[in-house]
Design brief:
4 helices
Length: 155
């Protein structure tokens, strides 16, 4: 028969977790309920860090700058995005999805020769056609959607 664990016994893992919590609470300091309520209400303007302006120069962010300067795009140029080319799509039932196997044909909502959609992070930015370059597939952009039209579609 298995012995029942004594309710007063604390395992080393439980003690380590309790010690971590105690250290974290000690670091948090003495925050009164009023401080917590003020923080939740958003009344912490004095402790909130100012947001950087997109147009601000890359140097000292506290210096005044002319709003007519060009935006500092360097801050976003290295952000990775996902680009995808959509040949078409269709809706099928899960039953039909589970029946797909090698050689199955799925009918799409586009006609042959119709331009593909080029999307960046799911947002349509262009249309194009399939080309072959050095034995690899590529896409030639035939129509690029203007930034103003893309912004209108987001709203």
């Amino acid at each position: 028969m298995a012995e029942d664990k004594n309710a007063d016994e604390v395992t080393p893992e439980e003690q380590a977790l309790a010690d971590e919590w105690a250290a974290a609470l000690e670091e948090a300091g003495d925050a009164s309920q009023e401080d917590i309520d003020a923080m939740l209400a958003g009344n912490t303007e004095s402790t909130r860090m100012p947001m950087e302006e997109f147009n601000a120069p890359a140097g000292n962010r506290n210096e005044q700058y002319d709003a007519t300067d060009s935006p500092n795009l360097d801050v976003i140029l290295d952000i990775p995005v996902t680009i995808s080319m959509e040949v078409g799509n269709t809706d099928i039932t899960i039953r039909n999805l589970l029946q797909l196997n090698q050689g199955s044909v799925v009918e799409l909502d586009r006609l042959a020769g119709e331009p593909l959609d080029v999307k960046v992070n799911g947002t349509l930015i262009a249309h194009g056609e399939v080309v072959v370059v050095n034995e690899k597939f590529g896409i030639r952009l035939t129509d690029v959607i203007s930034p103003s039209e893309r912004i209108k579609k987001l709203r």
